[in-house]
Amino acid sequence: MIKWWPLYGLRRKLTEQKKYISPVKLRNATTKIFHRSLFIYILDAGSSNALNFEINALESPQYNIHRFGIYFTDSPRHADVLLILGRPAKAMLEPLKETISQFPEPFYIITIDDFPDHPGLMDYPELPNHVAALTGVPSPSQILGLLLDISKTKRR
């Protein structure tokens, strides 16, 4: 006869024991209130594939961001947070501005730059409601820590 309690204990150990800490502090005082869950729209503006793997890992059972009420959406019109991956190439500046114009108020923008010293890429344009900027390729737990900081401030 197989006992199932070790499997339950293993799942709990993987998902509920970590402390998720953000490597950066939020730039602006985020006092705007969102209702219920936090929805994130991802825009890959010119990153390496490493950031995509880290973002996809957030939905794995180890991190399971859905238990915190954080979801990814396919439309910027339904999102609360814009997550920009990489520094934009010249061809991505207009689609980036168009995407930002489609966001409902209030919204936040987080940028993750995986090549901070690369000379050929453009700088970010002036971004409204830019609350955090990560550099390098952060781990999924660091990204989750930042998202939890935003979700804590949204519940004030």
Describe the protein in words:
This protein has 156 residues and is an alpha/beta fold. The protein has one domain (20-154): Rossmann fold (3-Layer(aba) Sandwich), CATH 3.40.50. The protein is built from four helices and five strands. Strands 2-1-3-4-5 form a five-stranded parallel beta sheet. The longest helix is centred in the last third of the chain and has 15 residues, at 140-154. The mean pLDDT is 79.
Summarize the structure.
With 156 residues, the chain is α/β, with parallel strands linked by helices. The protein contains four helices and five strands; from the N terminus they run αβαββαββα. It has a single domain, classed as Rossmann fold, CATH 3.40.50.
What attributes does this structure have?
Rossmann fold; 17% strand; alpha/beta; five-stranded parallel β-sheet; 156 residues; 4 helices; 5 strands
Topology record:
Elements (H helix, E strand, L loop, with lengths): L4 H12 L21 E7 L4 H9 L12 E3 L8 E5 L7 H9 L6 E6 L16 E6 L4 H15 L2
SSE order: HEHEEHEEH
What's the total count of β strands? 5
- Oligomeric category: single chain
Q: Structural class from helices and strands?
A: alpha/beta
Rg over C-alpha atoms, rounded to the nearest angstrom: 17 Å
Q: For the report, how would you describe the main beta sheet?
A: 5 strands, parallel
